[in-house]
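I hope you will forgive my troubling you with a question about protein structure. I set the record out below, with my sincere thanks for your time.
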Amino acid sequence: MGNFTTSSILLLFLFSSVVTSLPLSTNSRWIVDDRGRRVKLACVNWASHMEPVLAEGLSKQPMDTIAKRIVSMGFNCVRFTWPLYLITNDSLASLTVRQSFQQLGLLESIAGIQANNPSIIDVSLIKAYQAVVSSLGKNNVMVILDNHISKPGWCCSNLDDNGFFGDKYFDPDLWITGLTRMATLFNGVTNVVGMSLRNEPRGPKQNINDWYKYMPKGAEAVHSANPNVLVILSGLSFDRDLSFLKNQQLKLTFSGKLVFEAHWYGFSDGQTT
């Protein structure tokens, strides 16, 4: 992949560097800032795709405290997950945080959120998601919006019906609608520097032809709605396989924004540590 001129590989464990000029773009294999200086993203994953559809930990600590802790640990970026239905299912998106946790019987967590983050307890889930992004921005933390799954819940397995285009919970047209809405919602939010189109494509339906059919459509939809963000694409087999790109480069109408994301796990190559 060294010959690609409009894409970069996103490695979420890279050491951080100070970013002084946004938005980000790509230059050959590098991610660069608005002044052309190389930027190394050091991103921590913050889950907001589980059943309550709220960033985890907000019943334990104020979001500003968590954001400051992220910075103190040397990270400059959060990969902030979201389920597709948060932005495509109006009934879910309009639920308040309190109502969401009440439906799940998580009464102790409600009390914790009320104590630590009272400003979000009675706002809608999508407004609470925006509030976390805003808090991260106030602490100079960049954000990558990661569409982790469609139906809120644990991720991931080959048989969770969320893995690939055509699965029970992965309708391609609804996915493109959701990406467009999320990109539009955060257009102008400067610390949102990228959108990861889908976490870890996988499962029995995965195939290269459909990847090339739908991933460009998602990429074009995001770029059209929000041309400032990096457009981040994952490969097949839990995002461990991008080898097919050697034989067929992705064709898009835009340049300077495409990033490929690869995942590596110790257990995925036989290592146990």
Observations:
- DSSP finds eight helices and nine strands in the chain.
- Confidence is low (pLDDT under 50) at residues 1-17.
- The two ends are 28 Å apart (CA to CA).
- The helical segments are 63-72, 85-88, 90-94, 97-103, 107-116, 125-138, 172-185, 208-225.
